[in-house]
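Let us practice reading a record.
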Amino acid sequence: MGARRFSLPSLRAKETEATLTGEAIPVIVMVEDNVADVRLVREALDEHAVLCELEVISDGEEAIAFFDSVDASGGACPQLVILDLNLPKRSGADVLRHLRASKGCGGIPIIVMSSSDNQKDRDTAAALGASQYVRKPSRLDEFMKLGELFKEMLSKPK
């Protein structure tokens, strides 16, 4: 399927302004196969006025290939990764392990966002280097609050 890139529609004017002033637009890579969750993250980012590009990768194998290509080309790493644990082809744990071993992108913040509230999954994610572990909210208002977390993670000094 390939990675899909979205600009948040309500932020187009700010994006144009940033481009004109030479500011880099932060990139968030979301590794998620559930289209509804992708849509909710986009809405949460929009609600909190997070100016960014959201690149979506829908399976673990593709995510690993994406980060391998960034390493091979010396390209720019995203500023944040939002990673599901339950992915087709390769697990989120495999992606997390691979990403933390990346020579170029190994230090970027990674938020594991999973439907699992299992302590073993939380412990595994922490041991593999996840910056944060968030259980996917079941209520819309709680999902929208995640936009603040994403905004905060993007604004932390590197």
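A brief commentary: Residues 16-20 have pLDDT under 50 and may be disordered.
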